[in-house]
Amino acid sequence: MRFLITILLLTYFTTSISQARMVFNNGSYVNIENNAYLVIDNSNANAITLAGTGGNILSENENDLVKWNIGNTTGNHIVPFTNTNGIKIPVEINITTAGSADGSLLLSTYRTNNMNIPWPAVGPAVTNMCSPFVTTDASLFVMDRFWRIDGNSYTNKPAATLSFGYDFANEAGGANTIIEPNLQAQRFNPGIGSGTIPCTTPSLGFGNWEHLLFGSANTATKRVNNVVISSADFFKDWILVDNTKPLPVTLLNFDANCEREVTVLSWSTASESNNDYFIIEKSTDGVNFSKISKIQGSGNSTNLINYTFKDNAPRNDISYYRLKQVDFNGQHEYFDIIASSCSLVDFFVVTNTKLDDNNLEFDVLTDIKEELTISLYDYSGKLLVNEKSLANEGSNKIKLTDLELAKGIYILNVMGQRHQCDIKILKQ
Questions:
Q1: Do 110 and 209 have their domain in common?
Q2: Of the candidates 223, 242, 261, which is a domain's last residue?
Q3: Is 72 in the same domain as 50?
Q4: Domains contained in the chain, number
């Protein structure tokens, strides 16, 4: 026989004695609705005790909450969440290092559609599913469920090992592309990343699903276990994601600048996961690269980290550089190619010499700030494009769009106050 308690209003279910327990026995239910709180005022791990076949707490809304006043208590605190299919999806919070005595956890979980909408709304809110792990909306690589483990009431948050139960049969289907053994936990960091969809280059301050993955899936028990988090990693909003899609490093920038005749390469990461090292490669033609340096990575990090390398042997014309990131298991990723000239020659135009998709992107390297006149001619000399662009000292990226050109050869002319350069362009 199923025992059901439905909490409909902002009601507080509390214990009157500090060591009292809430015992779930043989399939009993607590159904939390209408933004209610089930308050567990006993900090001990056994304040919720499961007996027999266990019990069930149905939340299914971000604001239908279990508030557990854990304070500075340690131990494995289990919340027996169950979904509307009757599948147990418990959350375990094994607190290994106590937080401050004033703290409590707010816990809830709820199902979404396969695009993970609606997003969590309680601040700091999730603003998107635009994970930097993929170059588009990442919802189809994520279980259709959010978990809220909110420790924001703590002055000093605890450290813990988390475990998430999941219902793969009902919450990973449809258009989702998820391989169950690849599931790991991922958290939303409101301090980094791009807040736009589709994904763009990450920038600080908008919030994103961070390049850190936690735990591993046990497909027999339907749990993602061993989600080890420090107090600094105790963020509120969590998902379970297929780990084959993420990239291990959130690269914010990769730049080349000149210090006299030395090329200084610099790059920054917003986060790193299993990042062993970087390889800097150099090329004279932008096609054939060779290794010039190896830079140690930071392993796992959630902080902004800056890297630099000086190439003391720049060429007399243009050098091309690219950055290769290698993680601990040998997997690697290449980032965009950049170009630089730190020779005595003071003006270059760098392009891939091809028009792709009617867009032409090129770099202008100049030793002064100047206004450029950019002209594009067909091979008969007919003027097709004439634009102005202000270039700063150093490297400047310029893009001509919506050109709608036929196949053939074109001439790009870039003219500055003291410089001029003509380049032959091929449209295939």
A1: yes
A2: 242
A3: yes
A4: 3
259, burial (CB in 10 Å: exposed 0-12, middle 13-18, buried 19+): exposed
Residues 6+ positions from 406 with CB-CB distance below 8 Å: 427
User: Does the pLDDT of residue 17 top 60, yes or no?
Assistant: no
pLDDT of residue 356: 64
Query: Do residues 186 and 66 share a domain?
Result: yes
Mean pLDDT over each residue of the chain, to the nearest integer: 81
pLDDT the model gives residue 183 = 94
For residues 166 and 294, membership in a common domain is answered with no
pLDDT for the residue 335 = 77
| Cβ contact 278:297 at 8 Å | yes
Instruction: Judge whether 244 and 182 are in contact, CB under 8 Å.
Output: yes
CATH code of the domain containing 386: 2.60.40.2550
Q: Which range in 121-130, 170-179, 297-306, 387-396 is most confidently predicted, on average pLDDT?
A: 170-179
Strands 420-427 and 289-301: unpaired
| Residue 253 reports pLDDT greater than 90 | no
Q: Tokens for 268?
A: 């920054």
Q: How far is CA 243 from the centre of its chain?
A: 12
Q: Domain boundary at 212, 242, 272, which?
A: 242
Q: Backbone dihedral region of 121: left (phi > 0), alpha (psi from -120 to 50 degrees) or beta?
A: alpha
Calpha distance 267→84 (Å, rounded): 47
| Residue for token pair 């105790």 | 234
Residue 263: pLDDT above 80? yes
* Residue span of the structural domain in which 317 resides: 249-340
**Cα 240 from Cα 249, distance rounded (Å):** 19
Q: Are residues 312 and 198 in the same domain?
A: no
Q: Supply 225's token pair.
A: 């276990």
53: alpha, beta or left, given left = phi > 0 and alpha = psi -120 to 50? alpha
The half-sphere exposure of 263 on its side-chain side, counting CA atoms within 13 A, is 26
Same domain as 260, residue 222? no
CATH code of 320's domain:
2.60.40.10
Task: Indicate if 335 and 373 belong to the same structural domain.
Answer: no
CA–CA separation, 334 and 426 (whole Å) = 26
**Digit-coded pLDDT (tens) for 151-200:** 989 999 999 999 999 999 999 988 888 999 999 998 887 766 544 434 44
